[in-house]
Amino acid sequence: MRVGVLTGGGDCPGLNAVIRAVTKSLIRQGDCEVIGIEDGFEGLMGATPRVMPLDWERVSGILHAGGTILGTSNSANPLANEATVAQVKANVQALGLEVVVSIGGDGTQSLAHALAQAVGMQCVGVPKTIDNDIANCERSFGFDTAVATASEALRRIESTASSHHRVMIVETMGRHAGWLALEAGIAGAADVILVPEIDYDLQAIIDVCKAREQRQRYTIICIGEGAKESGHSQTVRQTIAGSTDPVRLGGVAHVLRERLQPHLKSEVRATVLGHVQRGGEPTPFDRVLATQFGHHAAQLVLSGQFGRMVTLQHGRITSVPIASVANSQRRIDLHHPLMVMARDIGICLGEA
Ligand code: F6P
After folding, report:
1. Chunked in runs of 10, what are the mean pLDDT values of the chain (352 residues)?
2. Which part of the chain has CATH 3.40.50.460?
3. Which residues are noted in the entry as Mg(2+)-binding (predicted)?
């Protein structure tokens, strides 16, 4: 069998671990020929497909490496028009691909699902994102690494905050879900954690900072990029025309700084962590999870279970129909145990 593998959407730590595991399993268990598609769906959209053979040697030694050896793209839309769909179909046929394993977030899974139907190929999905927001998946690889990076940043911010008696705001990624801000904030001992699922009340934050000005003399605020003040809108960094995911969030830490400063004696400073959260080596947890996901994707291919996405549910690796995750996001339930715990130990969630 000839199997294509692609990585789509924003990169994240652990992609190479999946590529390695799925390729090794397909070769060893199924004697398959594995073809890497470059830069996500973009590699199938041109007059000449951009691909690289994935053999045992090519995927050896990449377990720890950040990024993706295949390259990725989060703006390519293979369904943009009829001509593009026809080109993708011609490329899939010319390459003799029977199945494509698409490693990506909800956008990539939606595209893979629709494309498979449009061009008559089979697909198997593997969820990835540092946002941890894929429906029906309780943990995507890349998230643990991003939490580690962001919480380490919070710890470093704390020492300078306490030296200068400042209020420090640290912004994490995460799009419209607050998982990254919540877990990094808890692990990084933030006093205030603001997530997109709760429109924050400015006065509640002012009250915490003022109380701490009297005692600890510094405050750490961790805010997810999708969070917003009650009655205000999200902070959009950029809009990318033609992209399947056109809105890029970012900069809310600066917006909050402007709003807070007039009410406080302490200086308020903002740090936007940005892409540092997506780079670098995956943690051991993410290396193991990504390897399990890649291995399971190969089992789905070899047993002919197509149209399914590998997932983690109740701590077990399993799979769900791709259709059930396409175009939906997993956001934090306000009664999630981590939210309850945060409130109980006195972390302010920006609630009035
Ligand atoms: O979905 C992953 C993610 O890192 C989000 O957290 C963030 O909003 C977005 O991608 C950034 O995208 P880009 O790399 O295009 O700026």
Report:
1. 96 98 98 98 96 98 98 89 94 95 92 90 95 95 98 98 98 98 98 98 98 96 98 95 86 98 98 98 98 98 97 97 86 98 98 97
2. 147-277
3. 106
Q: Among 3.40.30.10, 3.90.550.10, 3.20.20.140, 3.40.50.460, what is the CATH number of 147-277?
A: 3.40.50.460
251: annotated binding-site residue? no
Give span(s): CATH 3.40.50.450, the chain. 2-141+282-324
The annotation status of 160 as a binding-site residue, yes or no, is: no
248 appears as a binding residue in the annotation: no
C-beta 248 within 6 A of ligand 1: yes
Q: How far is CA 224 from CA 162, 249, 256, 281, 290, in A?
A: 22, 10, 12, 22, 25
The sign one gets for the Cα dihedral 202, 328, 10, 180 is: positive
Q: Which of 12, 109, 147, 248 to mutate to test the pocket of ligand 1 (most atoms within 8 A of CB)?
A: 248
Q: How far is the CA of 31 from the centre of ligand 1 (A)?
A: 36
Rounded CA separation 74/9 (Å)? 4
CATH class of 2-141+282-324: alpha beta
